[in-house]
Amino acid sequence: MKRPTMKDVAQAAGVSLMTVSRVVSNAPGVSPDTVAKVEQAVRRLGYQRNVNARNLRQKRLGTSTIGVVVDDLANPFYALMARSIEDEAHRRGCVVLVGSTNDEPRREREVIAAFTARQVDGLIVVPTIGSHGFLRPAMEAGTHVVCVDRPAEGLDVDTVTVDNRDGARHAVTHLLAHGHSRIAYLGDRYDIWTQRERYAGYLDAFSARGLSADPALVRHGLRSHLEARLALADLRALPDPPTALFTSNDLITLGVLDAMDDLDGPERPRAAGHPLPMAVVGFDDLPLAKLLDPPLTVVSQDPVAVGSTAANLLFSRIAGDRSAPRKVILLTRLVERRSGERPGHRPDLPATPS
């Protein structure tokens, strides 16, 4: 079928082409009755504006489209971040294309190539590992790039991150202050920048007390609920198991919480008021964290602030800002809700404020 044009809408509504143009552009000066007739014709014909043609007529550069490239949209953090970016784009009349990489460099290149082929005005990218020099040709052709959540190797562009190392250090210090010395670390792939930073913060907390973390309690490379469950089972089977867990992202935390009931079993009744068999602090907040029993203690980062900050930087560049690249580091916050406050089995460490 032939794609309906603005001329078709004008004919169906019995108005001039200029009137249709004013209605679809939300311009003032058209009577409500006429607006209603035009909108009815638009819906009946299925008319859609050709944004590229409009930009050419108005001698505007760009496509009013940006691309957002994340690790995994199933991750609540990235979903909220992408929504925040979309809200900022909507205010500017811009459309957002979103793609996931699963932290695979080859897939990342494919998604970015698909977006640049559509001539997006800019990209907000959660970089995978490896050099991102491949983005330079697109940048030289006018595509603006902002990195978010992690810096990109080999690329000097605006970057928005949170203080992952400090947030993890506060979480583990909090557990140490509650008498835990056997604190396990459950993390994603170590080659991911955020995970390296969070593991460094985990080690910093022990070092500040003159202690050393036990390598037997460290698990890297957990990419699914199942892997988190298996890691927890393995840790609890140790001769001297951990009394507390620090989980390095929300998906790992969910996997651990799902596994707690199965691992306890009916023969191991829980203490009243402490349904979890060990203390838990997770990096990233969860929508249901307050409703768990006990409520989940977390290192909270704000995905909405991360997304809106990155979007504002990108739209500033698209508008013509040519200043030096900026590195924005947002702070985290330890939210105490009881899961991380369970006393350690061996409270032999001096309690200090976390």
Averaged pLDDT: 88
Number of domains: 3
| CATH topology assignment of the largest domain | Rossmann fold
- Give me the side-by-side strand order of the main sheet: 2-1-3-4-5-11
Which percent range describes the beta-strand content? 5-15%
List the helices and strands and how they pair.
Blueprint: H1 6-13, H2 17-24, H3 32-45, H4 51-57, E1 65-70, H5 76-91, E2 95-100, H6 105-117, E3 122-125, H7 136-140, E4 144-148, E5 158-162, H8 164-177, E6 183-186, H9 193-208, E7 218-219, H10 225-236, E8 244-247, H11 250-264, E9 279-283, E10 297-300, H12 303-318, E11 327-330, E12 333-335
Parallel strand pairs: 1-2, 1-3, 3-4, 4-5, 5-11, 6-7, 6-8, 8-9, 9-10
Antiparallel strand pairs: 10-12
Helix pairs in contact: 1-2, 1-3, 2-3, 5-12, 8-9, 10-11
